Amino acid sequence: MEVPGLAHNITSPLSPCEGMIKDLSLDALQLCERDGSKSSELEELPVPQNIKISNITCDSFKICWDMEPRSKERITHYFIDLNKKENKNSNKFKHKDVPTKLVAKAVPLPMTVRGHWFLSPRTEYTVAVQTASKQTDGDYAISEWSEIIEFCTADYSTVHLNQLMQKAEVIAGRMLPFSVFYRNQNKEYFDHAREAQENQMLRSVKDNSGSHGSPISGKLEGIYFCCNTEFNTGKPPQDSPYGRHRFEVRADTFFNPDTNLYFGDFYCMYTAYHYVILVLAPKGSTGDEFCKQRLPALDITNNRFLTCKQDEEGDGSLVFHHAQDVILEVIYTETVDLAVGTVAEISGHQLMSMSTVNAKKDPSCKTCNISVGR
Fold first, then answer.
1. What are phi and psi of 94, to 5 degrees?
2. pLDDT of 72 higher than 90
3. The pTM is what?
4. CB count, 10 Å around CB of 314?
């Protein structure tokens, strides 16, 4: 099946939407050098009706519609106007030669539109369609625009997450031992947990930090923990962006053979630091079932980020290691009782600039981006 090409410099005022289409990396690329224009044959070209969008991924979708049979054989092309819904001013700084409209030969429907340069995950778009007939002089006779349809692209699939994971593995570095998970907050956070939440740290929905296509953002409930240690001391650092009070818990409380481990994301924030999000979920828990359907599972004894295995040379107790060259953000999917660990004040500083709360991923970083919508 032939797929859409990309219109070149089509800026017809007849377009029902405003927006910018940057690029389309498709084999059947076709450039249209002329503006579509209405002609005396306009009434002979049917207007697409009942547009349907299906098979939506993070960087593609299928589109089909109904048409009246009259003059159907005269249709040579379709014009597809595709725009981000949330940014109607996206043309503000657009170069005049940046294409704005997809052009496809009139192929059997449904037709697949695919292109990571102009389709981003978790993004709302509007789409409208014209039918067109290419004339002998190279111009087009066109129909009226169809109704405008709205749709939203999907999250990253496990295929995309595996690609991200492979890139993260490249820079993860050697494994260092650790013995505790820790969570920093201000004093008021822990006071509230004791007084108003029956000594419990409650789960919250993950924020929108990291990759825009992450399937856990805004959906997965859990509690953030860290486990990185300083290579020279083997202990957690004394500085934190999140508060001067720290909850510490033995690593085997959360991480053991009854726990599943998942890869969640890989990102940076316009700095040299790279972050890997992992999810720890007790087997059979609600969080575990959520992750099984969406995230790549890791072997807890053999992966490049976080491991738990028996000490074969010692007493058989569990030993734990974390990757040295990435900052691990570990989401534990269950409520945590403060009684299973300790809370104490740290001696370092609160480095607010290091906070990743709702942090936006650098879309230009070649280390942590893949060739799909960012």
1. -75, 130
2. no
3. 0.80
4. 8
